[in-house]
Amino acid sequence: MLRKLPLLLAGAVGLTATAHAQTVTNITEIITDYGGFWQSSAAAPNPVLPDNSHDLLAFEVNGTRYSTGVDDALLSRRGLRFVSGDFRALPVAAINSTLTSNTKIGVGALYDGVANGASTPAPANGLATYLRDGRKGLNLGTGAANIPKGTLTFEVSSITTGGVGDQVPDVVVTQFADPSDSQDQYQFTDENDNVIGNTVTVVFTSIPPVGDWVADFYEASQTPMRLEAGFTQTNRQLRLWTADLSAFGITSTNAGQIRKFKVLLSGNSDVAFVAYNSQTATVTNPLPVQLVSFGGQATPTGTDLAWQTAQELNSAAFEVEASPDGRTFQTVGRVAAAGTSAQARRYSFRHTTGGTGTRYYRLRQLDLDGSSTYSAVVTLAVQQKSRPAVRVTAAPNPFGATLQLRLSPTEALPTHGTVQLTTLDGRVLYQQDMSGLLRQPVVALPGLPALPAGVYVAQVVLDGHTTFLKVVRE
Predict the structure, then answer these.
(1) Which of 68, 171, 282, 377 is the most buried (most CB within 10 A)?
(2) Considering Cα of 321, then 455, then 421, then 445, what sign does the dihedral take?
(3) What is the largest CA-CA distance in the chain?
(4) Where in the chain are the domains?
(5) What is the pTM of this model?
């Protein structure tokens, strides 16, 4: 049995690394779900050109086919032999690159529903969105093209070292547009951006393509994005290579220091996605939906709920769940989600119900791949007379050693309140009962721990009304 399988990365081609060059190998075949099943190789390119989203199901290297785990059942029904894998897109930590008019979002020609031209409205902007869409994030039919010189950083929590140097692929790199003269560099680093092992340089033109596709390229430096005539229905090639971790100088000694994977962009890079295999790398994934607020108003005849997201990735729907006691929940409604969006979205739902007791609600967010996550529980007391909610803001934001909550009531200050700080993956790092601190409109949070720099969600509950705030620790 195979001990572990590759990290998977999409965006470039060819190699000039001086160390461990023997561990770098071309991928000679790919299989995707375009049209139900699409197989193409360097030796026998498929004459059918994908013109929409299509997710990577498998790839072949050195005569061995590895699946990505997206649809192993389909591969089996086709009678194909393969080694099972489990690949998921790495979360984008940062894109340190200034976009220009030449920076594009590449999508299949029919992705926007228009065969030869731009859709109205245009697809949503946001490079990071297109680097992590599709099943498990492995969509070969979308990506970012002509990314200017800079650094593209992805999060990696830890690396499994048992298979380092065993010639089983650990990293797979894909170029999905025009390789031109790009020579990107790839490296693993620690939390402080120190390189672990060595850097691998890639020459994109040295790898034979395994297939062609038809793409539109929208200009990404403006919103809404614009599709120009010269970038409509253009044929592009797909190229892939693989490398063992040892090509990067990774050993059992230094692997534990890895926290990031970086692409040093040479100026015209074309990236579809960067992914990892769960048998090789561990990643703490941020929530696919960034929920920034969720609250409501309970009356004797019903509850009006409202929530807002900052961005969404492969989001299918929100199920509203209600409970009379805060422990046993049942679904009372469903609201369709935006799918993938880099823009703020607002939602609302009315639950018709009676009674005067306390009501409890939560959201179950459903993804297109069938996975789901829950929001925090909102506790609402029935108001016989509607009372305007207290507006809450966080300051300073970004914050350093201290963080304040500023209350703007239209009537009296609230009498009961709690606050909770969580990471984007739902870990609670701080919670505090504020009921004794609400005598003033400004509340300095006591006992705030020394949090790492990053983005957090503050859940503030005041007299039964819940507000979610996005806060940044510098």
Answers:
(1) 68
(2) negative
(3) 75
(4) 25-282, 292-382, 390-473
(5) 0.63
pLDDT at residue 266 is higher than 70: yes
Bridge pairing between strands 302-312 and 289-299:
antiparallel
Alpha helices in 344-466 (DSSP H): none
What the block records as the tokens of 339 is: 């799918």
Same topology, domains 292-382 and 390-473? Answer is yes
In 3D, which of 413, 427, 405, 319 has the Cα closest to residue 366? 319
Structure tokens at 446: 């006591």
Q: Which of 2, 13, 436 is nearest to 206 (CA)?
A: 13
Say if residue 20's pLDDT is above 60.
Answer: no
Residue 417 near residue 434 (C-beta atoms within 8 A): yes
Percent of the chain with pLDDT strictly greater than 90? 31
Residue 349, beta-bridge partner list? 305
Give the containing element (helix H, strand E) for 52.
none
Cα-Cα-Cα-Cα torsion 57, 62, 64, 68, nearest 10 degrees, comes to -30
CATH topology of domain 390-473: Immunoglobulin-like (2.60.40)
Run of H or E including 39 = strand 38-41
Given the candidates 3.40.50.1820, 3.30.70.2760, 2.60.40.10, 3.50.50.60, the CATH classification of the domain at 292-382 is: 2.60.40.10
pLDDT at 385: 52
Residue keyed to tokens 């919103």: 223
